[in-house]
Design goal:
Blueprint (H helix, E strand, L loop, with lengths): L8 E5 L6 H9 L8 E7 L2 E5 L4 E8 L2 E8 L12 E9 L4 E4 L5 E4 L5 E8 L8 E2 L4
Antiparallel strand pairs: 1-2, 2-9, 3-8, 3-10, 4-7, 4-9, 5-6, 5-8
Amino acid sequence: MALQNKPEVIYKELEGPEPQEVKDALNSLGLLHRPRSVVYAELTSLRLHLHKKTFELFVVSEGTGTLKQYFLDEQSKDFYRTGPFLRDKEFPLKQGVLVFIEPLTPHNIRDVAGVLKTYIVQMPTHDPKDEFYVQYF
């Protein structure tokens, strides 16, 4: 699978089996047997975006930062491109933290101290056509 690297993100395909910390995270959520793709990523930030169909799980391996999820007005029929944003929730990121993101949830990563090393699990498997950047801010 060819992965697209963005300026603020370095994606690397896994060599060998999934790390045990990823398996443990999936098992704790009852998701161990779901089809998925896993990439290792080194992040300095991550632009605000969402996925229409994909669930994501961030498994932080090293570093610190903040993942922010934005919750949208569900009354809007085209709410993945329009606001208003009702509220947001911040998750401090550090080694061992897991953050599960449902489809249609805009999210970004910021306030990274150096480089944030993380595994990104996508369910179902990675689809570059299912990534939409939000132009709200």
